[in-house]
Each structure stands twice: as structure tokens, then as C-alpha cells.
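Example record

One chain of 137 residues, shown exactly as stored in the release files.
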Amino acid sequence: MVLVPAVEDGRVGIELTGEEIELLRAGVGRWSGPTQLTDGFAAAMGFSGVPDSREQRQRIESLLREGSALLPIDWARALVATELAFVSDAVGDGVEWGTITGIRDEEAIRTLRSVQRKLARVTRSLIRSGLGVRPGA
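Predicted C-alpha cells for this chain:
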């Protein structure tokens, strides 16, 4: 794994495979369709609310597509969005993930575990400090 500070604004480049990028893009993208966020889940993902999540989702998806570096909070947002969309049948795609995204569950879990390992150093420090807390609380 390569962690390279890409630019002076704090963005971090992480070497991901094409499958890993595809998985994150699928996970982030799921929240713009039938899978709808509540303000609570938006806050858990590090957004100030649903409108902010829509705007930021488009930006994060675009950066992932370009292979660009992301801010640590954006890596965390992409990861949590993907985890919820893939695994949760209550708020995400759950058992329908493979049908909706075209990524089979076996491939998705293997790829997700790889992404989690690569992002751990960047995202762990954000738990309860920008991620999982309601802004201003």
C-alpha cells in the first residue's frame, strides 16, 4: 500500500486497484438513487445533512473516477457509504447489491476487506471526530 500526501491541502493518495475503485464508486453512487439517506445516516457518514451528502457524493465520485487523492474525511465517507450500501438490507442494498451493481457478493466482500485495510490508517482517527457525530453536537 502506498500513502502519499498528494497536495498541500491535506489530500492523501492511496493506491487502489480498479476493482477497489469500482466498489467505492458503486457504494457512494447507491445513495443517489433508491437508497435514500436520512439526516442521521448522513451525519454518521460525516456530512452535515442530506443536501450536503448529495453535493459531496458527486464530488467524491468524480475524484474516485479520476483516480485523484481525497481528503481523509472523504476516504472515510466513501468507505462508510459503501459498507452501508453493500451490507445493510435495512438501509442499503443488502441482498440486492449484486443485482443492482453487478458486483457479486463474494467479490465485493473480498474487495471491501482489501479497501478497509488500505484505508485504516487514514480513516480510524476520524471516528467520533468528524465521522459518526452530528455536526455542531
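Notes: The chain has one domain: 3-8+18-126.
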